[in-house]
Amino acid sequence: MARAQLWKNVQFLIKYESRRTGWGWFWTAIIFSCFALTAISLLNNIRADDSNFSRIFNRFVTDLFFMSIMGSLGFTFLSKDYRSSWWKRNTISKKLVLMRSLPITVVEIVLSRVAVLLMTLVIIGFCFFSVIYGLGQWGALPLSGTEYIRFVFIWLGYALACGGFYMYMEFALKEKVYVIWCFILVIGFILIAAGLQWVGINLVEGSMELAQHYGIAIPLISVLSGSLILAGCSWISVRKLERRELG
Predict the structure, then answer these.
(1) What's the alpha-carbon Rg for the chain, to the nearest Å?
(2) Spatial distance between the Cα atoms of 245 and 30, rounded to a whole number of angstroms
(3) 150, 216 in Cβ contact below 8 A?
(4) Of 15, 119, 209, 233, which one has the greatest count of Cβ atoms within 10 A?
């Protein structure tokens, strides 16, 4: 009975989140489809036979782009949570105050957020990677259909891990602190991408090579690792939300 009530409450919260998102689903799909066009251009650039500096710079930009975009794959733009000046209006905190006032548990709040994150990741991820595959056949993708699916799942593992961390920040931090951390993460992505180029590691090209030469092992490891990180962030989010003062 308790478990049935838990899932009933989770379903209620998922519907509530979907109503808050509204047209955000549609606009996020459009935005990520445009991102996919940018990704195709970047993938073409890293395969061009340019000067050494151009190759390094193109790989740096491509890695930085994928690191940044894949990290936000499980989130909708232009929803009520992330509309203009959301960090000033404390929209996420106000939503959490409302949820905590209902006869539902913190576990149910976090489970519903994970469910919405996964739904968004699947829907928006399908739009993003479908456009790349559909339009990238004219030179951008040196991968077969099966290899491309492996490539997608390698990056989906990364998206799960980042989604878990961003979700934790939603539950743990006030909006202005959340925004500051987002800027810090962008700087971190830039430094990581630059550092990897310095030592000759290319994330996007490397993930393509892994997809080509190592079968399903690497995608499975990536998705499993991302899922474990998401689960860990969910558990920490429950503990943090239980103690957080929302007033």
Answers:
(1) 19
(2) 37
(3) yes
(4) 233
Q: How many CB atoms lie within 10 A of CB 51?
A: 9
pLDDT-based confidence at 150, cuts 50/70/90?
very high
φ and ψ at residue 74, rounded to 5 degrees: -95, 15
User: What's the rounded Cα separation, in Å, for the pair 219 and 23?
Assistant: 32
Q: Secondary structure of the chain in the HEC alphabet?
A: CHHHHHHHHHHHHHHHHHHHHCCHHHHHHHHHHHHHHHHHHHHHHHHCCCCHHHHHHHHHHHHHHHHHHHHCCCCCCCCCCCCCCHHHHCHHHHHHHHHHHCCCCHHHHHHHHHHHHHHHHHHHHHHHHHHHHHHCCCCCCCCCHHHHHHHHHHHHHHHHHHHHHHHHHHHHCCHHHHHHHHHHHHHHHHHHHHHHHHCCCCHHHHHHHHHHHCCCHHHHHHHHHHHHHHHHHHHHHHHHHHHCCCC
Are the C-beta atoms of 218 and 151 separated by less than 8 Å?
no
The residue that leads in pLDDT, 98 or 189, is: 189
* Whole-prediction pTM: 0.90
* Locus of tokens 């799960």: 160
